[in-house]
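Archive entry: two folds, one per protein. Generate the first.
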Amino acid sequence: QVQLVESGGDLVQAGGSLRLSCAASGNIFSINFMGWYRQVPGKQRELVAAVAGGSANYADSVKDRFTISRDGAKNTVYLQMSSLKPEDTAVYYCSAHITSSYYSGPVNYWGQGTQVTVSS
């Protein structure tokens, strides 16, 4: 089994910073995608940032404010968030495409979510 555990969500004032972490553990052969999504009540979950094949991609709304990074040795992905705005308030979810053996294909796993609240 594979588990993704997120941490780092908190209440912060507008203009502040937070760093989210997501650690993958369990039966892991390889990881070819790790990303962060966010969701607010009544809206669809949206991609915030992702890293795959050494390349990072960002939603337009967070470019130049958020930075995604990955530590391959620790199977961990980070999201450094700066210049936070009230509209960044959401539950942030980690996602990873993980292969558990040489003979199996990737499976998409999700973390439990971590709340980020930005006050004005």
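Generate the second and append.
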Amino acid sequence: QVQLVESGGGYVEPGGSLRLSCVGNDFTVRDYAMSWYRQAPGKERDLVAAIIDTGNSTNYDDSVKGRFTISRDNAKNSVYLQMNSLKPEDTAQYYCQAASLYTTYKLWGRGTLVVVSS
């Protein structure tokens, strides 16, 4: 089954760190731009970070710049989001997305929950 599978979410205290992973299942991520989005309860799904297919260029929402790092390992068919200095406002469901560079095709994962609370 073609899918993206996220993992690594959980509960963490403010100031802590988590590393999210996204792996392709029957899906090759190296040909796609990959992004992490998040959706807090009652809010829209927003872009957090993105990385192009080669990994040479990244983009971040201002709210996470300097704290989060997106990376990819095409050999492992995976994308990661290292999250440091976490804040309660980072609490959300985090989703991985693959987007074609040449068509409108997009594939979403089912998400992983991050809760930042003391």
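Annotation attached to the second fold: DSSP finds no helices and eleven strands in the chain. Residues 34 and 98 are 5 Å apart (CA to CA).
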